[in-house]
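Good day; I would like, with your permission, to put a structural problem before you. What I wish to show you is a protein chain and, alongside it, a tokenised description of its three-dimensional fold. Please examine both parts with care and let me know of anything in them that strikes you as inconsistent. Thank you for your consideration; the sequence and its tokens are set out here:

***
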Amino acid sequence: MFQIKILWYNKNMDIIDRIEEGKIKGYLTTNKRIIFEGAIYHVTQRAPGKEIVFVEESDYLYFLKLAKETVKKFSLDLFCFSLLPNHLHLCLRTKEANLSKAMKSLFERYANYFNKKYKRKGHVFCGRYRASLCNDESYLLAISIYIHLNPYKAGLCSSLEEYRWSSFGLYSTKHFSAKTFINYREVLALLSSKMDEAREKYVEMIKDGMKFKESVVLEPYSIKKFVEKLARGVRKAFGKEGTPEDMDKLIESFKTKKKTVSAEDKKARKYLIEQLLANGYLAEEIIQLLSIGRTTFYRVLDKSGTK
């Protein structure tokens, strides 16, 4: 499912090389889009400022109509979605390296409809969409949970079952699964080959996510932190131990120490920063995550020979 062939190269060559070698897994938010054939993305788009993109029921329905047409035209797999008054989330897989063309078509067609309907001019969406890369099964599940939690976290509903404009019903109730263009079965199959059992497990994960105190914020680093917290619960459900959880322990251990004095402590810090870089974290994210100074960060990199 996650085998990928790189078709597009940019200045993030170091990240791309690590992805090809299987050294990077997870939920990657990067400044440059990394496009591959068969890649999975968490796409977000929003209205400018305090404006909204969905005014009434017919707007939601029309967007879903366009989404269905886009999925067919560009050979996409849409795993889940959530539409909120001022922003939206999609989780999808591209079978070709055509994410930009597909999203350009979808959002431009909706913007034209919206402006014509409400006799307005100007931008409907706030610039280009954001696309974060997912190349790990636990993070795919975590992203779907994050997307489905959005209406609840935004205070739009008291229970997810009552919110109409997301794909949660397909994941929680078999009665919603008659005919759909949403490929929900592939995600649920990660939990169990039996759909009823998979749905039960998925709903339990949703309930666990509801308990998190974090609110939904449309900012890449905040989304990443929330998704990673969800992913820890997913890995626990899978019964998997590994690098991500070990990384969490290293981070917590580092943050509880007031000073890095001994040679052993410095070596551990160097290792931690190198591992975070290898897992797709940006410099600013690492500096914020570890609460270290910019000078310290780059001094460690210089000593480790990393550019």
Summary: The domain at 5-240 is CATH 3.30.70.1290 (Alpha-Beta Plaits).
